[in-house]
Amino acid sequence: MKICLDAGHYGNYNRCPAIPEYWESKFTWKLHLLLKAELEKYGITVITTRTEQAKDLSLTARGKKAAGCDLFLSIHSNALGNGQMVEGTDYPLACCTVTHKADVLGDKLAATVALVMGTKQNGRRINKVGSGNADWYGVLRGATSVGVPAILLEHGFHTDSRCVRWLLDDNNLSQLAKEEAATIAEHYFITKPEIKDTSVSAQIEPETAFLVKVSCSELNVRKGAGVNFPIATRIYKGYIFTIVETAYSNDGGLWGKLKSGAGWINISDKYVKRV
Question: Rounded mean pLDDT of the chain?
């Protein structure tokens, strides 16, 4: 498995209108390096589109750097127009190629970012079409031209002050990188190489994880085990997830915790089938 990571923008670019220490370009550089390190823990080979933050490539050239990879992922934060703060618009957005080859992973990543960041709005996905029915985004056009599924992932909006303060916290970015890496690894059925631990605590066997496939048209992912918990996001028929923990809700329903960290789903036969 080989992934190409792209830090959106370079130098000092896209400053938050109200919180001057935040630059989109600096955030993307920091997160893509953290994500690289987390993905490599799964044995995934990771390359980046450039080695220096201050240097840039053209948009399509960045996408074409992914030649020979299984996935291209470009890291960004979003903004609304006119250099104004627009509080309350904070949804993560997965911009996927018009080939639709990365749609399922895009949905999963947007949901993961929403849960980890605690955004008010659920994650979303778009497949924006430009001229000639090609991708709107240049980096995606570049990746598509070399046959690589690609996602441009917007981590909330840097025109929302809560998002910006969250993204400025290095501890938050470390957690975000871990959860995004887990989501990608789970999607491709990759587990971390086993590290032998001879400590006493390691003698305790963890609960056995298992796979489920969504069999209903749409299923809510909630922030806890039960319908009384808020909806974190939604997943759709055909998606496959790893369940790492189970619990019964107050009404007796059986719920499973997603390995990606996106939340909990009802795992009764009415909604999912074991794989």
Answer: 90
